[in-house]
């Protein structure tokens, strides 16, 4: 929560309650991936009449109250530069996790994060539930999405709480899926404007001959970093790319790891419509 892969769409409280009922029926725990829980609470307050007058903190309490644990990257709604949290109800499971932590991170009181980073996260977890802050952040995403949409860039809508997702397969329709149009757009954005984005398509999610349903590129906005002029610069860069999109070439994989290939794969540029090696 929120759904990161499509740019931060929220999970409704009704959905969480329904999942809780199913989990109780089958005696299964619910563990939230809650990296962007504050954005999710903001959308619940704005979109669900039941919570219109409820504070974001109380919404968060109810949300987490229906779970048995959570894993949280503090680099998102912790407003910190590093770190994370594993929160659990079960003392038994907590003990098992703590023992694993000692092996990989160090003991609970001194391993992993520095005191400074833990302090930053503690402050961030309070500040992130400020309604005005979250409203500004969501509005930045909406502004960027609307400007790109008006330009003719195909985007996934509605826009979420932290990112705009571009339908790279539509934008670069001359590049077939097996030539990684999402990756091609990522490279073009960096070459043209120094803009760092991430592919969420056939390179990341491809599985043999089964391409993903969508070929996306995600533009995630760092918190408290970008001004409107930065976003206008991104739009201007897209305009230049649109004007010459037919010249953008595809890629083929030279080397890949057996799993999570998108992190370390080596690729080379090829003619957009060239057949893959061995085809």
Describe the fold and architecture:
The chain is of the alpha+beta class. It is built from 10 helices and 8 strands. Helices cover 43% and strands 13% of the residues. α2 packs across α3, α6 runs parallel beside α10 and α8 packs across α10. The strands form 3 sheets. It has a 3-stranded mixed beta sheet. It has a 3-stranded antiparallel beta sheet with strand order 4-6-5. A two-stranded antiparallel sheet has the order 7-8.
Main sheet: strands, sense, barrel? 3 strands, mixed
Shape: globular
Pattern of helices and strands? HEHHEEHHHEHHEHEHEE
Structural class: alpha+beta
Q: What is the arithmetic mean of pLDDT?
A: 91
Query: Strands across the major sheet, in which order?
Result: 1-2-3
From the alpha-carbon coordinates, what is the Rg to the nearest angstrom? 21 Å
Oligomerization state of this entry? single chain
Termini gap: 41 Å
**Helical segment count:** 10
**How large is the share of residues in beta strands?**
5-15%
Summarize the structure.
The chain has helices at residues 13-25, 37-47, 56-65, 91-104, 115-127, 131-151, 168-171, 181-193, 202-205, 228-243, and strands at residues 31-33, 69-73, 84-88, 163-167, 198-200, 216-220, 250-255, 266-270. The chain is built from 10 helices and 8 strands.
How are the SSEs placed, and which strands pair?
Blueprint: H1 13-25, E1 31-33, H2 37-47, H3 56-65, E2 69-73, E3 84-88, H4 91-104, H5 115-127, H6 131-151, E4 163-167, H7 168-171, H8 181-193, E5 198-200, H9 202-205, E6 216-220, H10 228-243, E7 250-255, E8 266-270
Parallel strand pairs: 1-2
Antiparallel strand pairs: 2-3, 4-6, 5-6, 7-8
Helix pairs in contact: 2-3, 6-10, 8-10
């Amino acid at each position: 929560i929120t759904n990161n892969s499509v740019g931060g769409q929220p999970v409704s409280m009704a959905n969480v309650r329904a999942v809780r009922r199913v989990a109780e029926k089958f005696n299964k725990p619910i563990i939230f991936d809650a990296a962007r829980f504050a954005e999710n609470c903001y959308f619940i307050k704005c979109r669900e009449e039941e919570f219109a007058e409820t504070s974001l903190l109380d919404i968060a309490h109810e949300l987490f109250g229906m779970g048995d644990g959570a894993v949280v990257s503090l680099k998102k709604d912790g407003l910190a530069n590093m770190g994370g949290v594993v929160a659990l109800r079960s003392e038994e499971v907590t003990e098992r996790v703590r023992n694993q932590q000692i092996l990989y991170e160090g003991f609970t009181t001194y391993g992993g994060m520095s005191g400074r980073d833990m302090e930053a996260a503690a402050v961030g977890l309070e500040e992130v539930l400020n309604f005005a802050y979250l409203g500004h952040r969501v509005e930045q995403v909406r502004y960027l999405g609307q400007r790109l949409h008006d330009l003719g860039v195909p985007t996934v809508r509605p826009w979420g709480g932290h990112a705009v997702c571009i339908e790279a397969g539509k934008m670069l329709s001359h590049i077939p899926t097996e030539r990684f149009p999402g990756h091609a757009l990522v490279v073009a954005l960096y070459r043209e404007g120094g803009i760092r984005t991430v592919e969420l398509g056939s390179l990341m999610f491809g599985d043999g001959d089964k391409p993903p349903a969508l070929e996306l590129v995600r533009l995630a906005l760092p918190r408290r970093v970008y001004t409107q002029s930065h976003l206008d610069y991104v739009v201007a860069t897209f305009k230049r790319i649109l004007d010459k999109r037919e010249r953008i070439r595809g890629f083929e994989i030279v080397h890949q790891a057996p799993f999570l290939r998108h992190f370390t794969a080596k690729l080379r540029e090829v003619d957009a419509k060239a057949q893959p090696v061995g085809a």
